[in-house]
Amino acid sequence: MSAAPSADTPDLSVAALRKDFAGHLAVDNLSFAVQRGSFFSILGPSGCGKTTLLRMIAGFIEPDSGDILIGGRSMRAIAPNRRPVNMVFQQLALFPMMSVGENVAFGLARRGVGKAERTRRADAMLERVGLAGAGAKRVDQLSGGQRQRVAIARSLVLEPTLLLLDEPLGALDLKLREHMKIELKQLQASFGTTFVYITHDQSEALVLSDHVAVMNHGRFEQLGTPQQLYYEPATAFVAGFVGANNRIFGQLKGSDGDIAEIETSDGWSVRARKSGQIAAGNHVEAFVRPEAAILERDASLLPQNQTHYVGSVQSLLFDGANSAVLLHEELTRFEFRVALPQTGRFADLKVGERIYFSFDPNRAVCFSSHGGPHG
Amino acid sequence: MAEITAATMVRAWQRRLILILLLAPALLWLFALIVLPHVQLALLSLRERVAPHVYKPSLAQFHTFIAEPLYWQVFVRTAALSVVATALTLLVAFPIAWVITKVARGRASALLFVVSLIPFWVSETVRALGWLILLRESGVLPALLVQIGLTAVPIELLYHDATILTGLVYTSLLFMVVPLVSSLESLDNSLIEAAYDLGASGFATLRNIVIPHAAPGITAGCIVVFMLTLGNYLTPNLLGGKNSQWFTELIYTQFIVRFNWEQGAAFGFLLLGLSTAIVALGLRLSGQRFVDVMRRS
Prior knowledge:
The structure holds two protein chains of two kinds. Chain A contains eight helices and 20 strands. Chain A is an alpha+beta fold. In chain A, the strands form four sheets. Chain A has a six-stranded mixed β-sheet, sandwiched between helices. Chain A has a five-stranded mixed barrel with strand order 11-12-13-20-14. In chain A, helix 2 (100-110) packs across helix 3. The longest helix of chain A is centred in the middle third of the chain and has 18 residues, at 174-191. The two termini of chain A are 47 Å apart. Chain B has a two-stranded antiparallel ribbon. By secondary structure, chain B is mainly α. Chain B starts with a helix and ends with a helix. Chain B is flat and about 75 Å long. Chain B has one domain: MetI-like (MetI-like fold). In chain B, helix 3 crosses helix 9, helix 5 runs parallel beside helix 10 and helix 11 packs antiparallel against helix 12 (261-286).
């Protein structure tokens, strides 16, 4: 290791990083830093450049320009096997020709650690990830979740500055994925190693991370805490990608301070908080979270300062605590999703029933859809 | 209940009949062309001619083999050169298979595979004659060596052991490349990356990940190439001339030139025993099982 970096040196610092694949700009002039001991996620749709970014950090892809600093040290011209970084691969890439213990001890053996010592350290690491005594097993004797833990143990035993995780939960079934999410978070907390995690699953990113960067077309749309991304999306892409949202296209008719008056092409009027400068007449995209809207059978019970709408129930989407109802706004047939209160108050709602709804314009947000980042 | 059992039995019989019919050509072929001649050869090798048309059972043919130094020396030499040729073929074929499977992509990979196949569209005789044109004293390569000033006069490049080995490696290459390609193709690239990521050097990755994974393919390729080389007659004969001293030539001489079928049959069995022994030894040393190797490659 080089000179011990001071405590406030970020474990990962990326400066003006760029990678062009024959005209396709995979990573576009990206700069960011990841603080020591944090869980950092890069969230984006497939093809957004997140895998390229991760592979550049690991050293498998050479950037066109820019620099990557790990623990304050430039990684330029340093091969992957010499970087203080380890990676958990999407398909885990456990070595089938070795036992579980040999898998975990592989990196130690490459560093020249003696056989007795590396067996001891591999066993200790397996114990820490809850696989005590599994060292002699073959990889194919383990369950999906256990393999996951072996893949992480195999990397963490080397005490890397940074652990990179390439959608490691993608191959697991839903139930196990939910379970492994919690396990990953606990593992990261107990080891204190900085995790850089890439995923296209917004729920993984939100649940696991201290900070999330939403990536699109090689750039970060927004970097912030999961709460910031959810409640204060900086761009229309983030608002649409993170969490469920009702997306309403329309034209800006007027403004009341921060609040925009928007009219859809069908003539439906909604109000939403403006994000950035939007001139009257501009095309806008508004976003309303399903849980920001309130349902009432009696219009007089809705907040009087909010615009009231009438909808007919199109379909009921029962999903336990995440249940929602799809309404058609009565005048325009606009499809609008409203979360059902968890009290079960509207459990008796019927398809075709008329119901009143409204939302707080401060909890809705709108972006200019011309001249914005997405044109 | 009884009807069901009867019906099941009929179906089982039908299935067995179909299996037997499908296997029949292969079994007939094995029996007529492999088993029968070998039984005949075995009987031939175990008799001795004491007078015209009078034979008696004896081990004289095998005794001659041991007593005559030329015979067993050629035998040992053939085995040793075949092992060397097999090892060289592996060394040459491995990088080719690696480039085809892991470096080249898409069309380039397919093209490379075809390129290594093309020489096998012409017969082995023609290929060996091609080497003659290149290597004989008045051939292309000696003339080139003179022209660039490496040698003063054209030298004879034929009739050396190295020439025989070159020809054997060239002839066997495809039979090594094919099993290697299929075993390297099934190696997940992320395993190589993972090894690299965990700090392994290129050599450590090769030794710990690539070779263990490709071991069945390597073993299968080596077995095939070794058997082909040991039993090759044409290439050693054409490229080595009188100096080649290949054991198959001795067999040919006994059968065709000297009409000593008893001796030839004994030599044939010795060669069969030799190849079996060396393949068994190779499998033992590499820790592979024959059935696994044949199944996985």
